[in-house]
Amino acid sequence: MQHITGKTKLLGIIGHPVEHSLSPIMQNAAINHLGLDYIYIPFPIEPQNLQTAIQGFATIDIVGFNVTIPHKQAILPLLSHIEPLAQTVGAVNTVTYKNNQFIGTNTDIIGFLAPLQTYQQDWSQKTAVILGNGGAARAVVSASAQLGCKEIYVVGRNEQKLKEFHNSWNNSSLALNLQTSNWDILPNLIAQTDLLINTTPIGMYPKIDESPLSVEEIAQLPKGAIAYDLIYTPRQTKFLQQAEQVGAIAIDGLEMLVQQGAAALKIWLQRETVPVDVMRHAVEEYLVTGM
């Protein structure tokens, strides 16, 4: 059993909401396995309190923290330094506090790509369609470009936000064929999709009966396409259930969670390796038993 003392070093995750996060489960499992005097805690931070929270973290000398919805972009101007990868993405999910500076990076790309490595595909001929245009979508755009996807579509409901999203990539160093589209064209777009990714929180616990797509929309998805949901609570979202019913390959967000978390832990602990299997097992066991 871990004993928390005045010497225990602090890690955590900020978001709103953050109660659903499984990051504390897997990160504390890894910390305990390594026998380190650290603790990883979830911090529910409302958007209007973000700046105050970051200032508070400096006063308690936090080692680092993860960033989730809705802070991945809002936190950028509050950081001392942003690593090139995170600058390219335009979103931060991992922050380190070192030498009185907050340093931001992005490990979501590593996490997102991990489960796709098992599928031998010529991505240069594939079309990726991304549902949503928030911070997570930015990491997925970068990852899709790294895969070499022929076309990348980002679909949203707010025309102004879509335009801003598209324009924000104008000076990107990535070679990407990016297009933004209104939700109304989805039925036609889905019919030519090879990789369909949900980056929205629609379908996340507790609203597990919701899906970003209607039955009619997802029915257009070609058989054998990959449907990828970044949500991991629940693992089998309604979106993935719908996709499997039309013959698509379903990927949930658990492996992305584990791999991005492992990459963050390596940064904070300055280690080449961390016990990824321990982290994965802890999350899987929690999802089954709730303990």
From TrEMBL:
Domain Shikimate dehydrogenase substrate binding N-terminal, chain residue ranges per copy: 13-95
Name by which UniProt lists this protein: Shikimate dehydrogenase (NADP(+))
PANTHER family found in the cross-reference section: BIFUNCTIONAL 3-DEHYDROQUINATE DEHYDRATASE_SHIKIMATE DEHYDROGENASE, CHLOROPLASTIC, SHIKIMATE DEHYDROGENASE
Annotated catalysed reactions: shikimate + NADP(+) = 3-dehydroshikimate + NADPH + H(+)
Signal peptide, first to last residue: none
EC number: 1.1.1.25
Residue ranges occupied by any SDH C-terminal domain in the UniProt entry: 253-284
Keywords per UniProt: Amino-acid biosynthesis, Aromatic amino acid biosynthesis, NADP, Oxidoreductase
Keyword NADP attached: yes
Presence of the UniProt keyword Translocase in the record: no
Protein source organism: Iningainema tapete BLCC-T55
Pathway as given in its UniProt record: Metabolic intermediate biosynthesis; chorismate biosynthesis; chorismate from D-erythrose 4-phosphate and phosphoenolpyruvate: step 4/7
Subunit structure: Homodimer.
Record-annotated active site: K72 (proton acceptor)
